[in-house]
Amino acid sequence: MTDKLKTEGNFTYAEAGEGPAIIVLHGLMGALSNFGATFNHFSTNGYKVLIPELPLYTLPLIQTNVKNLASYLKDFLEYKKIDSALLLGNSLGGHIALYFTKHYPEKVNAIVLTGSSGLYEKAMGDSFPKRGNYEYIETKAREVFYDPNVATKELVDDVYATVNDRMKALKTLSIAKSAIRHNMANDLPEMKQPICLIWGKQDSVTPPEVAIDFHKLLPNSDLFWIDKCGHAAMMERPEEFNLILHDWLKSRNI
Q1: pLDDT tens-digit readout, 52-97
Q2: Which of 16, 42, 215, 223 keeps 20 to 30 A from 114, CA to CA?
């Protein structure tokens, strides 16, 4: 993915394809590359796919929260002259999509959530990784997936570097606290957009009951399960994820 990144003004992002816009929103510890297979599939099948690099660690500490990340998304859409888009978010990215939709519903034509936070905040970690302890961080990273081998050394190294950077660790905690403050339960029934929920059956971060609660609260949602899959379905089971999403988009005429 890094070879596809471009920086313009305040934005660094990947973009490919032509057609209706899909904006991909990554999670707290999620690299843009986690969505590589989704980016490639939909950008070659009739959609314009954009993945902005969210300013998780570049905003001032006091501004590092869900609200300002949603404002950043608004600025990005305006910069790209996109009036309305489908938002696809994993973990924190899903939460940002929901918060954005609450405040700018006219800019969202559909939402895709996978392992989203916003209802259940173990998503942000009930025990933040201990600084300096590589083995602990490796264990925590592997627990995110059904197949622990998906947590490559490169992925673990990235998480380790983040939690051992004092300012990044503080900003991570700031976002986590913000996510708990901005619980979306009361807002979901007002969201009338078509919403696709794609969930790993073995997601231990946002467990299956979270997906069921999202489905109950969102009035226009469809819920799909992927077996033998953890918190990042688009990364762990990319072909199945893409097939489910592609079929759903066709069924909804999006």
Answers
A1: 999 999 999 999 999 999 999 999 999 999 999 999 999 999 999 9
A2: 16
